[in-house]
Structure formats: structure tokens, C-alpha cells
């Protein structure tokens, strides 16, 4: 009997999951075997292309529905706007923390209203990120700002720190909102709309701490196992991520160093100003140009200060986010590997079980059974049935895993392309902005010095002292 | 005032700049051409060379010599362009010349030499006297010194200066023969005068104070500037790292590669541009340094005034006391408390003959004293007159030169800004192609 579901389950041409040929043969064999329970996946497949948020944990529902490129959000089609602002300190008897206002405006039908305003703290953002990662282990979640600041003793309630964090949280939510899959998740919706009490109780519904522990242990075990037949494109991705990590790390460091040097240069420049002013006080003819000089230097100092601030506010955080991204990318590749490793392990186990079954059918263990009083044929039949049952279970599980793997691979591939586009846009605009600000800075300083020159020359002309060229 | 009686020292003439001479001021901000020597002769310090030789304690040493070229002005303007006369001098000979001028013309604010050792350096420059950049800047400074001396109304006529430029051998001996070293005022004498003078000319006192302030302010400025140069160097050079990383990054990207690669080149160019910028800034620092050392020369002139004034006051005081003694002796009264008065009270008065002899001696001394006071008074007046003229000349020169220095600093900054605009506009274009 032909089973369309099974056909679909066979890796199609575009999948690059390599499955050893002997096993694939056995999978096809299933046709002649038992009554395969028809999964819900058959029904889900026909349900249409809209993403059902509640099915997020069923990978099977995502197969063949994964069409990222077509969902790419243009600015015109953006139907949800999220902002993070208005940080406030929240004081209780036990602790003090900062909450941020999260405002949402949307025309999406899944939302009950078109505008929402809630307050969230950093922990809430962490929770959301965790949930999204759990549900979609091979999708790339934009990084959150770090929990602690490693360098220097920065107060958690320091204004600059809070502002930097707020901006990063804003970017985080916007990236989620722009992501075709993440933005339609339940968790995201609840995050944006639920009152604090609601959110707390929803949080508790998630997988328990213990089960999450179990996942982590499994993941660690899997990572130790390693993957045997990683498709080349994922190896390429890995190599790229390693190289990219290095480069972005260097850029981050270089940029920070530039800011540091500029700050120190600024300090020295600032010291010049009072010296020129002091000097002008001992002079007569020179008093005016010297004072003018002091003023020019002062203006340049102000411009430098602003330039440094802009670097700090724009370029540094942008680069830093992509440094954090590399961790996410590595984790995603690792998780994909784990899924494949799991699948490979299970595939091996199934093969062994089948081998057992075949071996069994050839062995007649007469001795014990005759003692017990059962006929050898009976015993053999019993055992065969048992093994058949076990094999069927394993095969079902293996099918699920294969689906999961294929889905994970496709998800990663699409999201990878998406991520690269976003990265390119982000970094390009960060650098273009920086270059523009530098041009601005030099233009302003140029104006300062040109006006100084002009005033000196016109004055000198007036006094008949200097012939101008 | 140093009075060697030698005819080699020029007579102090009318040192006011005539209107025509002012008009002759060249674009070369450092030099006034309307004076004697430079009218006749072109001077430049063309080259520098390393030499080794035995020094005073018979040890091998390496030193640098500078080639001084001179050429009559008329010949050059006729278009024949003859080979210039030239000779080699080392730094210590320049120092000797200047020390001579200081003693011979104490009322002149003598132009300073470039620094003996490199100071106010920022890390890229070494303090090594043999460093080619240092030698080059010193060459320029020495030329500047010669031009300033040659354009000075008084100094340019000095024979020793002339032979410094024209006679390679035996010049040193000639200088020593003037005996100028013996005539130099001792440091102690000068210091003593500074503390004890009662009525220095207020203008000189103010000028000395100004010299102190100028020195202090310029030293501070040079120190801060050196540190700022260090930092600026750092800022630019670190951008070179961008160039390297962009280049490496472009290798792993497909679409972004080209934009990154070309942006990287611009970052390299930006990093390299700082060398020229700082070299130009060094020139500004050199201009400031010259006036730092000029401040010292100004103070020296003021100190000399204090000395002459002090010596006048001393002579006058001496005269007064001698006159007083005469009066006491003549009238027999002891007006002031004195040892003489005491002893005469205790031991009785002297004989008329003794008194006569004493009176006669005092008269002579008073006569001499009056001569001395008159002399010193004249000296002092003349010194004040001629020194003040040179100080006025110096002030005008300083105002002009420093204003020009500020203007050229502004021009430098403008050039730096323009370069920056260009580089970052180019980089921006490359980035937008990323």
C-alpha cells in the first residue's frame, strides 16, 4: 500500500540530510509491514499555510510551510510597531530593579486590540528569549544586552548603563517583531500584551526547571557524541562563524580603542585652552588673536566630545551586538548538530534492533523453553512479535526525528540567509553613519579655523601689517 | 656697560626703522630685509654632515657640522649666479658667537639659537641629537639665527659676526682675542643687583615680568602640545587596524567583500596621514620654542639694566656718604651715629693737621666720585635708551611673528580637516557599497 505520508517523510531532493542507504532501504520496507498509524502530520499538512501559533512545538507542522523569503517584511507591509522606553526604578522591600515601558501598535488580527502598553523588566526579556530558543533551537534569536558589565564597576542603576540597555532591548524586540516566525509566537504576544500578573502565571506554565535540566543534560551528552555526516553547507557555516567571530571581535576592540585614544586626546586639547587664555592676558597686540585661538580650540573640543559620544552611542553598541550574535550562531549550529547526532544514534539503534530481529529468527533456543514447557515455535513467535513492536516504536520515533532534523536544517538555512542580510544592513549602516559623523566633525572644525583665519587676516589688513596671499 | 674700546664694536646709531625699510618686509616672516648686511649678502645654512674627530680631552667624538653659504646679493640678481662662498661650522661655534654678542651688545635682545637638546618631545621623536629629523630642524633653526642677526641694525655690522660667516680658520682665536669673556658680568654680581636695586626703570621691571610670564606660558603650551601630539598619533594609527581587519573580513564575505576591501584602503591612508600632520605641527612648536628662548634674552637685557642702575645707585650712595663725612669733618659736628663720632668722643678729637689731610683726601674722593656718578649716569641713560629701542623692535617682531605662527597653525588645522573630510567621504562611499 502506498502511504503518501511515508513518501513525504522520505527526504526530498532538496534536503541534504544524508541517510545511509541501507537504512533508507529498510524504511521503504515499512510499506509492506504493519498498519502505520497515520500521524497528525497528515492532517496538519492540509490545514493551510498560516502558521498556527499553538503548534509551535510540533516540528512536523512546519515542513514545507517554511517560506521565509516570501515573508520578508518590507517597510510597507510592517504591521506591528514596538518601542521600549521610559525606564523607571521599581523599589520593593526585597529588591530594586528597573522596568521599561513596552508599547505596541499593531493591526494584526491575532491581537485583541490595536495598542498595548505594559512594563517589563530585564528578566522578562530573558524569559522571552529563552522560550523562543527552546521552541526554535535552530533559529537565530537576536542577542540581548549582557546581564552584567564585565569591565569596570558600572552601577546597575547608572543612567548611561540603563540608556544603553534600553536601546539594546528596543532593538531586540524589534528584531523579534520583524522575524516571520518569532513574531507570530504566543510567547511574544503575551510578552507584549499581558499584565504583570498574567505574565507571571504564564511563565510558570512553561517546561519546568527539572525538564529543562533534562534537556540541557541531553544536549551536553549529544555534543559529546558528535556528528558523523554533517552536510557541507553547515560545515561552511561553522567555518564562517569562526572567522566572523574573530573579525567582529577585532573590530569591537579596535573601535573601543579609538574611542579611548580620542578621549585622551580631548583631555590634552582641553588643557591648551586656559593656557592660551592666560597668555592673552600678558599681551597687548596679541591678546585678541590668542583669545581667539583659545575660543577655537574650545569649539573643537566640544565637537570632539560630541563625536566621541556618538561613536559610543552608535558604533560601539552595534558592533558589540554582533559580537554577542556570534555566540548565538555557534549555539544554533551546535544544536543543529545535536539534532543530527541524535538522529544518527537512533538510526544506528534501529539498525541494530533489526539485526537482532533477523538474528533471532534463526536461533532456536530449545533448552530453556522445553524446560518451561513451551513449544519452541511459540516462544519464537512471542519474541518476534515483541521485537516487531519495539522496531515499530523505534521507527516511528525515527520518522519524527527525521522530520525534526529536516525542519531544523531548513529553518537554519533560511534563517541564516535572513541573518546575513540583516547583519549586512546593520553593519553597513553603522559604518556609513560613523563615516558621515566623522565628515561632519571635520566640517565643523574646518569652519571654526576658517573663521579664525578670516578674522586674523582682515584685522591684519586693517592694520597694514601683513600682506595677504 | 661692556666697553672694550675696540673699534670692532659698532657705534650705537639711530635704530628706528624708516618707513621705507618697513615696507621692504618680506613675506619671510622671520626677517627684515631693510638692514645692512642682508642688503649685500644672501646667507643660508645649506647642509649638515657628520664628522668625527678628537676633542679637547683627546677622545674620539662624532659631531655634526653645518655648511654656511654666502653670496653677494647683487651678483644673484644680475643673473650670473656664481658659486657661493661656504664654510663649515659646528653648533659649539654658533654658541661661541652668540655668547660674544651677548657680552658685546648687552642692550640688544640677541636672537636665540635652536635648542641644544631636544626637549618637549612626544614619543615618536627621539631626543637623540644625531637623529636626522632633529639635525634637519636644527639646520633650519641655525639659518634662522643667522638671518635674524644679519638683519639686526646693530648686530649685523659686527666684524666678528662677519668673519664667522666668511673666515673658516682662525675665527675662534679672533673671538677670544676680543677678551669678551673677561668682560662678562658674573652671575653673582647680576643676582646681587637684582635683589638690591632700588629704582629700576618701571618699563624694564614690567618687561622682565613679561619675560617670566612668556616663558612660563610657552613651556606649558609646549608640554601639553607634545602630549596631545602623542594622542593624536594614537588615534590615527589605530585606524590602520581597521584597514587590516576589513581586508581580512572581506575575504570571508561575498557581497560585502568589495566595499570592505576598498574602505580598508582608505583607513590605511587615514592612518598614514598623521605623519605629515605632526611634522607640520612640529614647525609650529619650533616657532614657539624660538620665543621661549627669546624670553630669556629679554630678561637678560632687563637684568643688565638692573645692574647698571644698581651700580649708579651704589656710586651715588658712596658719593653721598663721602660728602656727609666731609661735612662732619668740616663743621666738627657729628650728625649721624658713626664710629668716627664715637671714637672721637672717647679718644678725643684729632689734630688739625690730621683733619686737614683727611679733608683733602675726601675732596679728591668726592671729585672722583662725582665723575663716576656722572659717568654711570650717562651709561645708565644711554643703556636705557638703546635697550628700550631694541625692546620695542623686539615687541613688534614678536607680535608679528607669533601672529603669523597662529595663522599658519590655523592653516595647518584647515588642511588636516580637509584631508579628513576627503578620506571619510571616500570611506563612506565604500561602506555604502558593502
Automatic annotation (TrEMBL), chain A:
Residues 377-411 form a coiled coil. The keyword Protein transport applies. The keyword Transport applies. GO terms for molecular function: phosphatidylinositol binding. Gene3D superfamilies: Arfaptin homology (AH) domain/BAR domain, Phox-like domain. Keywords: Coiled coil, Protein transport, Transport. InterPro entries: AH/BAR_dom_sf, PX_dom, PX_dom_sf, Vps5_C. Residues 78-199 form the PX domain. PROSITE patterns: PX (PS50195). One of its GO terms (biological process) is autophagy of mitochondrion. GO terms for cellular component: early endosome; phagophore assembly site. SUPFAM superfamilies: BAR/IMD domain-like, PX domain. Belongs to the sorting nexin family. This is PX domain-containing protein. It comes from Phoxinus phoxinus (Eurasian minnow). The lineage of its organism: Eukaryota, Metazoa, Chordata, Craniata, Vertebrata.
